[in-house]
Amino acid sequence: MSRGHAVRSTLALPLLFAAQFALAAPVPASAPPQAGRTCHLPGAEEALRCVSVQVPLDYGKPGKTITIHATIAPAFREAARADPLFVLAGGPGQAGSDILPIAQAAMRRVRATRDIVLVDQRGTGLSGKLDCKSPPEIDTMTEEQLDADARRCIGSLGVSFSSYTTDAAARDIERVRLALGYRQVNLWGGSYGTRLAQHYARLYPASVRAMVLDGVAAPDQVIPAGGRDAQAALEATFRRCEKEPACARAFPALRTEFAELAARLARAPVRIEMADPRTAALRPVTISLRRFIATVHRVLYSQADAYTLPFLIHSAQGGRWEPFIAQSNRDSDFSADGAMAGPLYLAIVCAEDFPRLTPQLMAEDARGSFLGTPLVTQLAALCPAVGVKPVAYATPARIDAPALLLSGAQDPVTPPRRAEAAARLMKSAQHLVVKNGGHIVSTLGCVPRLIREFLDAPGKPVAAQCLDDIPAPAFQLNSAGPQP
């Protein structure tokens, strides 16, 4: 989640399941491949190639169009394979161009022989990003004021949010494939991108050679009903601290401190003064329960960040909130709005996911979980503003393309059980688990090599013993950082 706008700053922005499975619409006859243009994007020193593809705004009502942006990182070898790797980012709300540094790290071996194509989903990045500027007083606004500003943002965009669905995004990908002249493509999806990848593979099975899905969402997964998985990740972090002597000595009352913080914030927000990172002037900052639990949830996504959590909790319980606020703000460097397109997140989750969040499911999911119901309550307040109709869920068809599923054992939003559920609807799926991994593991250890080996021979088993060599991060015990 990005801190930028009120829509982003107050939603936990987990990935979201995609619910619409319809027959693929006819696509235009093949045209000569687009050559594209030379472009430079943040995070890459080299020149890349960019293309813009015009697609229908509403596939059911041809007429108005929207421009979809794709970035191509050409294969290093001149004799590139004919099947590129399409990269689909998460959120929903991230663009492929937003995660270029991650893609370069995870796909560096793949790029030796294949083009890497990063697609900006409609409503993100350079594909007509749905976003608003952050109010300057964001850190002192109440939750009611933040939600009111989010509604103002939504109303000011002047778009029909019903056109921003997972189904439309999947059809956009097919138009990009055709525009670039590829016969078949491989897919890498991360987080929500796994939902989009699976949907595309079901709509256009002949277009997909193989899939790599990292942080896999099951088709029947209802987000934001993620309390069970988030609590399991928090408990795992607490247990590891308790088992490590140095961490246990530094934070002997960790669980009690966490519970006391949550109880205190449930009674009333905490207001502190801290130095503005740009001006060094003291400014007020409000920490609400919603901000607290959203930050804890985000910290758990990365194992390296999760191992700072005991220190952050202990410091906050002692009245020193600055480290916690710094972590909360880290997604934005205070110089620009963050990358996540919050209104797109709302457009998709309010249509495809929130309608399935029954009172019974919400109660069961919140029971015993630190996430509770603040996010669901906020969605109930914001969803009417986007004005989208519920998208009916249909039983998904089997996917025939070979798939490599990647999971982090400590993932707070798409743990291994979600990948196992998705695999049951696939003809050929290999599932690898990184025991010391969190949410998204493609950049860790030997995983980039395994991705390359799988794509070179999708029908062969991947030898994954090297995953056990990926170490757990060190706990941060004080302000000096992680212990040696």
Automatic annotation (TrEMBL):
Signal peptide span: 1-24
InterPro entries: AB_hydrolase_1, AB_hydrolase_fold, Peptidase_S33, Serine_prot/Carboxylest_S33
GO MF terms, alphabetically ordered: peptidase activity
Sequence ranges assigned to domain AB hydrolase-1 in this UniProt record: 84-441
Keyword presence, Transit peptide: no
Keywords per UniProt: Hydrolase, Signal
Entries under Pfam families matching the protein: Abhydrolase_1 (PF00561)
Superkingdom classification of source: Bacteria
Swiss-Prot/TrEMBL GO biological process terms: proteolysis
Family note: Belongs to the peptidase S33 family.
Identification of the protein by name: Alpha/beta fold hydrolase
